Amino acid sequence: MKADDIYEIFKTLSDPTRLKIVAHLIDGEMCACELLENFHISQPTLSYHIKLLENAKLIKTRKEGKWSFYTIDTERFYETANYITSIANRSKENNKKA
Predict the structure, then answer these.
(1) N or C: which end of the chain has fewer CB within 10 A?
(2) Domain spans in the chain, listed from the N-terminal domain onward
(3) Rounded to an integer, what distance in angstroms lies between the CA atom of residue 71 and that of residue 93?
(4) Dihedrals φ, ψ of 90, to 5°?
(5) Residue 96 — pLDDT band, cuts 50, 70, 90?
(6) DSSP 3-state assignment of 98?
(7) Residue 34 C-beta-side C-alpha neighbours within 13 Å
(8) What 8-state DSSP symbol labels residue 41?
(9) How far apart are CA 84 and CA 98, in angstroms?
């Protein structure tokens, strides 16, 4: 994973609405209408946030007719966690040497 990817992920997740969308998707797939019930925002605003999450590859979209269903891209979150863990491990190793 590149530093640019990490930057994009953190920038995307820094918005409270997008972070809340991800939190709602932890329990599984949801359609836009279900997500919208949890927020006081318009459908176009939800679509904007969803698009940014998709662009950062944090969520996946599945189309079924006119409906869109969203899930967390678990692999992307694991990659991000592994990247952060590797930084912590390297820092810990370097601090032991000092």
Answers:
(1) C
(2) 3-97
(3) 36
(4) -65, -40
(5) confident
(6) coil
(7) 13
(8) S
(9) 21
Integer Cα distance of 95 and 87 in angstroms: 12
- The average confidence (pLDDT) of the chain is 92
Strand order in the sheet with 67-72: 30-31, 67-72, 59-64
Q: Which residues contact 53 (CB under 8 A, 6 or more apart)?
A: 12, 18, 21, 22, 59
What phi and psi values does residue 20 have, to the nearest 5 degrees? -70, -35
- Using CA atoms of 24, 25, 30, 32 in order, give the dihedral in degrees to the nearest 10: 70
Q: In whole angstroms, what is the distance from residue 50 CA to residue 41 CA? A: 13
Of the pLDDT bands very low, low, confident and very high (cuts 50, 70, 90), residue 21 is: very high
